[in-house]
Design goal:
By secondary structure, this protein is mainly beta. The chain has no helices and 11 strands.
């Protein structure tokens, strides 16, 4: 089992950048694929990005492709989401999630991921 804690959220102006982190505790985190989801106010949770266990394969939602990059540091049990060129519509609570299927990146269904963090708020506003 693994526990996940997100950090790095905050208030940023449109066009700005933020870097979210997902710190994991528990056994064998390097064997888990990790995804990022977000939940805008009044909307359902939606897929953002995912990275496989080795960190050599990733997948992005169309809305963020080219602006967001996910990476991982297995030595430090951490996954990051670098968010650039932020837009007002990126405002949401961002969650990291993990699955024991190590090589999946393209599964966008929240139900596929067994482990979730508590979320971190990202607000993009001028």
């Amino acid at each position: 089992q693994v526990q996940l804690i997100e950090s790095g959220g905050g208030l940023v102006q449109p066009g700005g950048s933020l870097r979210l982190s997902c710190a994991a505790s528990g056994r064998a985190f390097s064997n888990y694929a990790v995804a990022w989801f977000r939940q805008p106010p009044g909307n359902e949770r939606e897929f953002v990005a995912a990275i496989n266990w080795r960190g050599d394969n990733s997948y992005y939602a169309r809305a963020v492709k080219g602006r967001f990059t996910t990476s991982r540091d297995n030595a430090n049990n951490t996954v990051h989401l670098q968010m650039n060129s932020l837009k007002v519509e990126d405002t949401a609570v961002y969650y990291c999630a993990a699955t024991t299927v190590p090589d999946v990146v393209a599964n966008t269904d929240p139900g596929f991921y067994a482990y979730w963090g508590q979320g971190t708020q990202v607000t993009v506003s001028s």
